[in-house]
Design goal:
Shape of chain A: globular
Number of strands of chain A: 11
Mean pLDDT of chain B: 96
Order of helices and strands of chain B: EEEEEEEEE
Distance between the termini of chain A: 40 Å
Largest sheet of chain B: 6 strands, mixed
Order of helices and strands of chain A: EEEEEEEEEEE
Strand content of chain A: over 45%
Radius of gyration of chain A: 13 Å
Number of helices of chain B: 0
Mean pLDDT of chain A: 96
Distance between the termini of chain B: 28 Å
Oligomer: heterodimer
Number of strands of chain B: 9
Helix content of chain B: under 10%
Largest interface: A-B, 24 and 28 residues
Largest sheet of chain A: 7 strands, mixed
Shape of chain B: globular
Low-confidence stretches of chain A: none
Strand content of chain B: 35-45%
Structural class of chain A: mainly beta
């Protein structure tokens, strides 16, 4: 059974940093592309970033480019999202997601339960 | 403003059929697979349809997907009260800012 468990969310001041983690199990983690998707309170889904399985290619939404960094530790089956220079508009539930293939060009197969990030002074 | 366009809401009676549209462009729907996701209140999204019209195991055949040109459609037959949820379409966008894109979501109300 695929499991994705996010952690690291919380309250942070504007301009601050936070690192989200996603512990994955139930599949060969290194083989698959992984993504982060966020959902602001009462709003729709917004893709944040993806990391391909084999090539290591990374992709970012324009809204986070230059501020967020996606990475993975295949030895720990863990996906990360380093978030710097946080803004109020980054407040959202952040979902870790498993893509169906090694390439990032497809949809999302499994979603975690999400972790809430609140950016406020 | 979402890259993919969905109606904000649809409604139908139990047992009836409903369709939800998703409109895009040649850089996204026109040249990439479409997926559909269901998000029940207070829950994480779940995959309903992948690669335009395929259902993951465990998804009943009441749910169907299709794609034509730069548009896609989710169909739900035999509506049940448990189908009340937000539905999102998603795909890959191959433009300069390549990445996954989603529709704004459609709230389904089963009257």
């Amino acid at each position: 059974e695929v499991q994705l468990v996010e952690s690291g969310g919380g309250l942070v001041q504007p301009g601050g940093s936070l690192r989200l983690s996603c512990a994955a199990s139930g599949f060969t983690f290194s083989t698959y592309a992984m993504s982060w998707v966020r959902q602001a309170p009462g709003k729709g889904l917004e893709w944040v970033s993806s990391l391909s399985g084999s090539s290591g290619s990374t992709y970012y939404a324009d809204s986070v480019k230059g501020r967020f960094t996606i990475s993975r530790d295949n030895s720990k089956n863990t996906l990360y999202l380093q978030m710097n220079s946080l803004r109020a508009e980054d407040t959202a539930v952040y979902y870790c997601a498993k893509d169906p293939y090694s390439s990032s060009w497809y949809g999302i197969e499994y979603w975690g339960q999400g972790t809430l990030v609140t950016v406020s002074s | 403003q979402s890259v993919l366009t969905q109606p904000p809401s649809v409604s139908a009676a139990p047992g009836q059929k409903v369709t939800i549209s998703c409109s895009g462009s040649s850089s996204n729907i026109g040249n990439n697979y479409v997926s559909w996701y269901q998000q029940l209140p207070g829950a994480a999204p779940k995959l309903l349809i992948y690669e335009n019209n395929k259902r993951p195991s465990g998804i009943p055949d009441r749910f169907s997907g299709s794609k034509s040109g730069t548009s896609a459609t989710l169909g739900i037959t035999g509506l049940q009260t448990g189908d009340e949820a937000d539905y999102y379409c998603g795909t890959w966008d191959s433009s300069l800012s390549a990445g996954k894109v989603f529709g704004g979501g459609t709230k389904l109300t089963v009257l």
